[in-house]
Amino acid sequence: MDQLSFFSAEASGPRLADLAGVLCGQGQIVSFGRTAARLSVPVAEPWRAKALAAEFVCRGVHADVLRGEDGPLVRTAFRVDLIHLANAWLADEGKQPPDGFRLTGGALRLWALAAGQPNGNHYLLGVDCEAEQLADACRQLGLPAQFVGPRAGGPAVRVTGKRRLATLEELIGVPPPAAVEVWPGFRPPVPETAA
User: Fold this and answer.
1) Is residue 2 assigned to a domain?
2) Summary mean pLDDT of the chain
């Protein structure tokens, strides 16, 4: 019988703090009067928006799926319980991971849903901020990763190797049905040959 990692999304259960995962990717957070904040996540495909909205609901946060300038957008209302994310992630230079940021399986799951993509023998987690610090957060979770630039399919944090991809898959849990083909460990079916 397989044992779940203590840090996996399924072992720890959904938590509001997991929403930091979308900020690792292209998610944005804005505050209103230092009392409330709104989280928004532009995504490339409609299924990602629906999956993220469902994950937000599991964490007690309603999010609307809207049509943004460049595609689907998941956005919450301004909420008091999101101000701690804004305070942690917003700096004078813009969005950046807070000092000492610790990644969890749940946050990693949301990051993969928002910006994860297989790329050959690698898995890329798209980023738009301090990627080296996010790669360090992956390593602290027991998932060796490295930052790669545009030439290697980035900017992204890249996970490479069968064992590491298996660890990533364990940490982020079972994919929603629409995400199966972009989940770590997905193997496309081999076409049958005519006899």
Assistant:
1) no
2) 88
